[in-house]
Amino acid sequence: MTEQEIYKMVTNILSDFSEVSIDNMRMESKLMADLELNSLDVVNIVMAFEDSFNLSIPDSDLDKFKTIADTVSYIKNHS
Amino acid sequence: METKYPFHKVKHEVKTIQELLDWSGYTYASNDAYRFFEGNTICAKTYKELLQDVQFAGRYLKENFASASHIAVIGPTSYQWIVAWLSIVTTGLVAVPLDRLLQSDEILKLLRQADVSTLIFDNEQHLVAEAVHDACPEITCICMTEPFYGQDSFVAQLLIQRKLGEPLWSESVDSDTIAEIVFTSGTTGNYKGCVLTHKNLAWNAMNGSTYAALTPKDKTMSILPIHHTLEVTAGMLTPFCSGVTVCINDSLRHIQRNLNIFHPECMIAVPMVVEMLNKNIWITAKKTKQEQKLQFALKLSKCLQKLHIHIERQLFASVLDKLGGNLRLLVVGGAYLEPKLVENFSAMGITIVQGYGVTECGPVVACNTDRKWKADSVGQTVTGCKIKIVDGEIWVSGPIVMQGYYNDPQANRDAFEGEWYKTGDLGYMDKNGYLYLTGRKKNLIILSNGENVSPEELEQKLTEIPGICEVIVCAEKNTLTAEIYSEPGADINVIEQQIEGVNKTLPEYKNIRKVIFRDTPFPKTTTQKIKRNYSNIS
To answer: Given an 8 Å threshold on Cβ–Cβ distance, is A33 in contact with B481?
Structure first.
């Protein structure tokens, strides 16, 4: 998958949990500060990534998902 | 004012945790007390087995540790943690539950502050135990499941004791005996150790069984961190009063899965969990294009409820099935909960019993009941306690109030006025005795996961960063945010990187998630203190 395709899927998933619209999301958007997500949301979002990208993400990697850019590059490197 | 209200009856009165465990061990002997995962298998322990395990472990502790020793316990929620805590407390020793998310240096500080002689730890906290072993050789470290520097594991000691024959309590515990010292965040960032007695906790456990009707056929699922007082009393001890089975959720990631494995009727939760469940319900509705149907069903159910017609479980069968199918009660405390969520969940057939508490009162001070509740109130004063409002502040007296802060006479002078404990929370009571919260007297941030954060502690750490002149930390929409006035010409990117560095030294819930830079210094009081309400953070 290209970075652009991953970005599109990631922002789609994020929009389910965040009140920020996809149009207002940017690569540098921070999940907690800018998208107003809490730590439980991040847990759920990571599980949604696992399903959508057929990945297995260990608990120890949860703190690597700080921005959309982090997320996209993590998924790109692990899928 | 003292109040009478539609609480359920206490099944059996107890004065100590020992009496409670003893009574439940005989009354509900064959009922499962705990269900939990061991690998991929679900194990169960009956009330009789739990009582015996606690007595075996208690005999080992009694024989090996001086009376009134302070024993710290650290780890995720597990059957071993629970047996360790109960055996310490029922043997007349003092338990010191610790937050497993704290860094080693903070744990060391707390162990010293509470005069801990022994640390029982989960293997997950192996590195912390190594640090304690190196820095405090006088503290005995016992791993729950593995040997550690020549010490047999806690589980191994249980097996040895089992071979030595049936245990009995060697002596009974007095209700004024100290059961535990629990740390709570002070407003300056220093932790204070709340000394809670058997009486404090036994009252809390019994009161807990009066908020809602639960029977030995019911199950709860434990999801909150076990060191929290709400989880210890409402999550662990209250179920003993009704023979309820507690199912241990093994990870936050597995809540949804485990709801469908354990099928609990009840959960003890913080607002963040309720918000998450609500979000998941709406995400599923959106994906299945059922949003409008769900909205209509909510309106319909609310109307029917006014007519005392209850078809919630049929109307919302698919929603409830996703939550395990049996969930009908959420006991929620620890932070502000939106009344709309209370109303919507009720319309779906899940009653939210919202309460208010502070660690210093073990913790529940006021609570709604499943018979009668108000969505925007935290309920009425719990049985046997009194609340009065002094200059807007909530004061509490009664058998739930702690003995005091451990070794902290100044904090005790500040917190008590005779028998009254001053909570620092602001609120008022309506004419029916329902309590409403309006804010905090002291600067303490309460996050939706129930964690308390001292802004001053974080501000002090941030002002040590070169380039930061003034800083205020607030919670903006539940996100810890720092508003900074930096030195003219200071590199903002460097400051942000340094804040990331500070975050790494703190538990995750204390991390600064958002930084706002301001152009001018903060307005000050005459004593040159920053006026907090002049911050730009909403």
So the answer is: yes
Determine whether the interchain pair A41/B279 forms a contact, defined as Cβ–Cβ distance below 8 Å: yes
Which tokens hold the place of B305?
A: 């409820």
The CATH number covering residue A54 comes to 1.10.1200.10
| Residues of A with Cβ-Cβ distance to B283 under 8 angstroms | 16-17
pLDDT beyond 80 at B442: no
CATH number of the domain within which B515 lies: 3.30.300.30
Residues B54 and B142 in one domain: yes
- pTM for the full model? 0.87
Q: Does B513 touch chain A (CB under 8 A)?
A: yes
Residue A56 domain boundaries: 3-78
Residue type, B299: K
Minimum-distance CB partner of B508 among A33, A39, A41: A39
From A32's Cα to the closest Cα of chain B, the distance in A is: 6
Residue in B with minimal Cα distance to A37: B479
B117: domain CATH number is 3.40.50.12780
User: Min CA distance, B499 vs chain A (Å)?
Assistant: 14
Question: How do strand B219-222 and strand B245-248 relate by DSSP bridges?
Answer: parallel
Q: Whole domain around residue B44: which residue ranges?
A: 17-173+215-262
User: What is the tally of structural domains in chain A?
Assistant: 1
pLDDT band at residue B345 under the 50/70/90 scheme? very high
Chain A residue closest in CA terms to B503: A63
Q: Return the pLDDT at B1.
A: 43
| Residue range B301-331, pLDDT digits in tens | 999 999 999 999 999 999 999 999 999 999 9
Contact B251 A36 (CB under 8 A): no
Going by their DSSP bridges, the two strands B404-405 and B479-486 should be labelled as unpaired
Please indicate, yes or no, whether residues B124 and B145 belong to a single structural domain of this protein.
Answer: yes
pLDDT digits (tens, 9 = 90+) for B271-282: 989 999 999 999
Is the Cβ pair A41, B479 closer than 8 Å?
no
Enter the ipTM: 0.75
Chain A residue closest to B480 (CA)? A33
CA distance B82 to B441: 35
Lowest mean pLDDT among B3-7, B374-378, B383-387, B425-429: B3-7
